[in-house]
Amino acid sequence: MIAFCRKLRQDESGATIVEFAVVAPILFLVLFGGMELAHVAYVKTTLRNALQEASRASGLEDGSTNAAAIDQKVEKSIKRVAPDADVKIKRTSYQDFSDVKTPEDFTDSNSNGRYDSTECFVDINGNKKWDSDRGRKKSQGGADDAVLYEVEVKYEKIFPLWALVGSSEKITQLNAETTLRNQPYGTQVPNEGVNICP
Predict the structure, then answer these.
(1) What is the pLDDT along the chain (198 residues), one digit of tens a residue?
(2) Start and end of every TadE-like domain (predicted)?
(3) What is the distance between the alpha carbons of residues 173 and 86, in angstroms, rounded to a whole number?
(4) What is the largest CA-CA distance in the chain?
(5) For the CA atoms of the chain, what is the radius of gyration?
(6) Which residue from 80, 67, 68, 91 is spatially nearest to 177, judged by alpha carbons?
(7) Looking at the chain, which runs of residues are DSSP E strands?
(8) CA separation, residue 59 to residues 70, 97, 114, 142, 144 (Å)
């Protein structure tokens, strides 16, 4: 019996399967995590390339009439690499680059540094209310206008690693934006806005 125990103790057959069982979870986590990161980078690169191409096409004279077709092309490019992606595209036009994401001017009559509903303001975008962003929403603008083109992409992660590491984040969200100037195919229409006092 002692000889059998000594022989059993020296027997290393099956040790590999035990070692693999210890190392495999870490190996698969690193492998699938790397593949997830690579996929996110690929989708992000595709998004940026599609956005760059769309912004070039949008700046042309026929950009405003072809806006839907340009947006469909962006969405199609993204869905090639993330088929279940939810793609949202926004355009906001401004008179100049310096106007991008800036509030409409107002008369700060009580000197508190913020707009109050009783104060006069300059309605730049024509919606008859004060906005913290003076841009015209859903607009490609006209000749020589600056346009902020934004794309938001949401899609489910390809591997369920989020569940293994105890996270609830199963959605990947990517955002990209670019600001372009429409070609000077005509004379830019000046927009001084309308003074409105409630």
Answers:
(1) 676 666 656 666 666 777 888 888 888 888 888 888 899 999 999 999 999 999 889 888 888 788 899 999 999 999 999 999 999 999 999 999 999 999 999 999 898 989 998 999 999 998 999 999 999 998 888 889 999 999 999 998 887 766 766 666 778 899 999 999 998 888 888 888 888 887
(2) 14-56
(3) 9
(4) 102
(5) 28
(6) 91
(7) 86-94, 121-123, 136-137, 146-156, 171-181, 194-196
(8) 11, 14, 34, 9, 9
Give residue limits of the domains in the chain. Answer: 1-196
Strand partners, 88: 152
Contact predicate 95/189, CB 8 Å = no
How much is the pTM? 0.78
Tokens 């700060």 correspond to: 108
What is the DSSP annotation of 113-150?
SS--TTS-EEESSSSSS--SS-SEET---STT-EEEEE
Extract the tokens encoding 105. 């001017």
Cβ distance 169 to 156 under 8 Å? no
CA 65 to chain centre: 24
DSSP bridge partners of 87? 153
Other beta carbons within 10 angstroms of residue 21's beta carbon come to 9
Helix axes 67-81, 15-58, angle to 10 degrees: 170
